[in-house]
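Inverse folding, one chain.
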């Protein structure tokens, strides 16, 4: 099974994203656009694991806590790795410092299970689109400039989720396997 850990966010933000993508999608038909209903804030991509690892992963994640909820503002857009060689079009996330701490806590909890720690710095974002090549991106790159400070909304989260991802030709299908309240006393 293919697993990852992520935060969810409200439908009001998904609706704002859906509206933005509807405006931008015609500008870059070569992009592979992500469906807003499948978006999430990835904290840890675990990858493929044997089914017998599921229970130990759930036990490890249940021990991850934070002293406060995570506050996030979905704001602005950009490109990874650069505008000159765009591979990913993303929305930025301004978050309370404990978001990075939560991601690090998840990493730390999973390493003893043989799940390798991420080598790249944690950079919270939502992926809007992926590109095979820069072909056809010029109009999107130009239009994105007007959305540099676009504010798509805020949320306060107290739960993270273990998802299973099944890949299909039509895109990935996500199933929540388990939810974890990471703030003591939060419901």
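Residues assigned per position:
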């Amino acid at each position: 099974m293919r697993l990852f850990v992520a935060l969810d966010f409200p439908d009001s933000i998904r609706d704002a994203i859906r509206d933005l993508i509807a405006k931008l999608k015609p500008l870059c038909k070569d992009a592979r656009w992500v469906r807003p209903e499948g978006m999430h804030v990835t904290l840890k991509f675990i990858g493929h694991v044997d089914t017998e690892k599921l229970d130990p992963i759930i036990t490890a994640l249940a021990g991850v806590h934070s002293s406060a909820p995570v506050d996030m503002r979905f704001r602005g857009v950009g490109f990874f790795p650069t505008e000159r060689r765009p591979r990913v079009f993303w929305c930025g996330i301004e978050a309370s410092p404990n978001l990075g701490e939560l991601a690090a806590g998840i990493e730390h909890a999973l390493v003893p299970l043989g799940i390798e720690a991420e080598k790249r710095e944690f950079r919270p974002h939502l992926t809007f689109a992926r590109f095979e090549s820069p072909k056809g991106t010029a109009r999107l790159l130009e239009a994105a400039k007007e959305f540099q400070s676009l504010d798509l909304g805020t949320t306060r989260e107290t739960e993270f989720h273990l998802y299973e991802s099944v890949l299909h030709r039509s895109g990935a299908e996500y199933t929540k396997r388990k939810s974890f309240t990471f703030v003591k006393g939060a419901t």
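The longest helix spans residues 11-24. Residues 2-181 form a domain with the Cyclic Phosphodiesterase; Chain: A, fold (CATH 3.90.1140.10).
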